[in-house]
Predict the structure.
Amino acid sequence: MTERICLNGSDWLFKDFVGEDWIWRNAEKPNTQDVRWWRKGTVPGTVLHDVWQNGETPDPYYERNSLLVEWVPERTWVYKKTFRAEERLRGKRIRLHFKGVDYEAQFFLNGRLLGRHRGMYAPADFEVGDVLLYGQDNLLAVVIEKAPDEQPQVSKTSYVSTHKSRMTYWWDFCPRMIHQGIWDDVYLEATGAVRIEDVYVRPQLADGFGTANLSVSTELSSTAAKVVQVETVIRFRGERVGGAATRHAVAPGDTRVNTLIEISAPQLWWPNGSGEAHLYEASVAVTEIGCRDEPNAGGAVSAHKTVMFGIRDVRFAGNDTPDATARPYTLVVNGEKTYIKGWNWVPIDVMYGVPRPEKLERLLTLARRAGVNMLRVWGGGLIEKDAFYDLCDRCGIMVWQEFIQSSSGIANKPSEEPAFLDMMAREAESIIPRKRNHPSLVLWCGGNELQGKGDLPLDDDEPVLAILKDAVRRLHPGALWLPTSPSGRLFMNSLENADKDPTGMHDVHGPWEHQGLTGQYTLYNRGTCLLHSEFGVEGMTNLKALNATIGEANQWPPSKDNPVYFHRGAWWINELLVQRSFGGAIADAAAMIKASQFLQAEGLRYALEANRRRQWQNSGTLPWQFNEPFPNAYCTSALDYYANPKQVYYAVARAYRPVSMTARFAAQAWDGQRRFAAELWAASSLIRSLDGLEAEWRLIGASGARFGQGVWSGSLQSRTPLKLTGVEVPLEEVTDNLFFLVLELKDASGAVVADNRYTFTRTADLQPLLSVGQTCVQVGKRASGRDRWQLELLNAGDLAALQLHLEDARPLGVNGYVYFSDNDLTLLPGERMTIAVDWSGVEEPQRELELSCWNSDVQSIRQTSC
């Protein structure tokens, strides 16, 4: 029977050395005389985190302190741990397993060199049965070499020689904090003579999806000739639904056993928003029932292994385009066309070796609640740890996984050196089998923004991409493949490309900046791309995050002339745009945050809505970026470093609702125009059609005055966008400088199935948002279950309540989180709204919220209030 002995923990010791000084000192050996300056470390973890926690560097997340820790990856680090091997393990086949060491290391057990390993994604395994001391203490030592010299964001991709996260070498959203360490689990695995190396379940659905054939491939390794029984059991929600048992003669070495199991009426794995993400369990046990010379001997279970999998079918279909050269980008999941509602995902922390299970679950819960059905795991980050894919499996979030290759600004073509190509081939052979059982992992991609001549995206004939594609086809049949993102024909989403080659924007990137109060709308109104796999809008972080990471004295000005801001997101500082958009009236950091986040939210949600209005010419959007690994002052992320949403998170969540009602218009500020005009659209992700609909629009000023209204009635077909009607109102009749377009779509029963609203000014900029008089917001609260509140917000004043914002009133870093059904919204005079508040991991006495508004007093909402 397989037994795993965990060697993780905070009982490791570590120490730094210059070069090979550790050899001279025998630092890796038992009874070494090198006894000074060993510190306590944690595995899995990160060298820099351990150094920081031991008080030997300043907080690298604060201001410009990361500049003071750049010496850490230049050192060699020795980690060691003493552990006891129980006498009962003697005679077992025992393997020492390192799931991930970043990046190059030597491994010693009781002073004996086990071997060397290079690469952070392939495991390092060693047979140690004859090296362990049974019934005694053992010393495990790992020498982590100086981090390899590698390229930051701006360089030449052909210089890259490793398969290592490049983000930590410096990127636009991450300072230079190069990662080293034992970043994944370490354990001993004890089995009999026959061990299970791998179990791969490949489901294949029959026509009509009434049955599924499971091809279960089990890789065995044996130290002797044996006769074994391989029993495979398939369970769904704990109940056995299928299985098979077969006998085999295995020789010393490796043996593959294939089993075919039929499942009737399979419960399919569906992406978020399309159905339930059903998961199955495959359990394989290998029993020794004898050998060639002793047919009646044995009978003991030598090894067992359990894997989770899902039954689903994912394909690409063609988009609605006249260009016959275009790749197909429309996802068809279990026979249903599925619009991609995505985000780009980056590592959750620059110190990615430190486990953060609560934060990981928080991030993926927020993604699920926002209607996200796909995350693109960006090629400058990570092949993530198993916990990420496990949660995506459960949340129904499809994963687009890139190999860790990226553009470099100056030149973006990967190396063709034989050593590099051989290394990438080995990496693929190791990585793919360890991830392929996850039903969430639907697509492999060669890397991020890999380009050749003319800055055009590379194709499958690029040597390294051809190698990776072949590995995916062989090792993960049925998985989708793209050579790079974007995959062409053109790279950039721009007006220039729209004019030059309107049908040539297939899968595009960009832009990542707000284009202005008119330019943002001009660009996305003219969109023609088939897939928009990376683009964004920049915005400041949340105020709490800013206060935690930048001292008050350095918070102004929030510009590139401030060295602290320059260090923490220089590429995304849009202070000049924000000031220009708000009439130059912003005078403090808190106001700059509000204005910057407002532009980010309005700009990005419009881009998503515009793409969705072109479904199925456009088959999906994946904005850049969902999360951030470092607390930047400015970033394109939807969440701050502490996993708290910015305003744009809720704007995108509304754009991703199953049914949407949106407006197409020319600008946000209407100075100099005679008429306000817009087109109204609806789109649905539902499988069923909606009949008996009624859509209403109202144009309302900040004072509550109504300047126009209209009604449309009709039906909305399944997954087909529809232009409903037009809106035209003379601007001379709009007497408020600040006004709103309010949309509502109701079904035949009168229930609201979609709503939306847009903010406009009659002036040249958005300054009227800052000059609206005070209003009064009343809050009512009632419990709805143990962990849910229902908040009733009422604007009891005479003016619109602008950008009502709810947030956890507790300090950053405390346990637990809060989730809101909606947030960052405007209430018109006399209007009320209900917000559901879900608490997770927060004790009742600690539950407290803060409600703020651009033009109303801040209020506290406590467990006992209201």
User: Anything to note?
Assistant: The two ends are 58 Å apart (CA to CA). The CA atoms of residues 186 and 405 lie 27 Å apart. DSSP finds 13 helices and 49 strands in the chain. Confidence is low (pLDDT under 50) at residues 293-297.
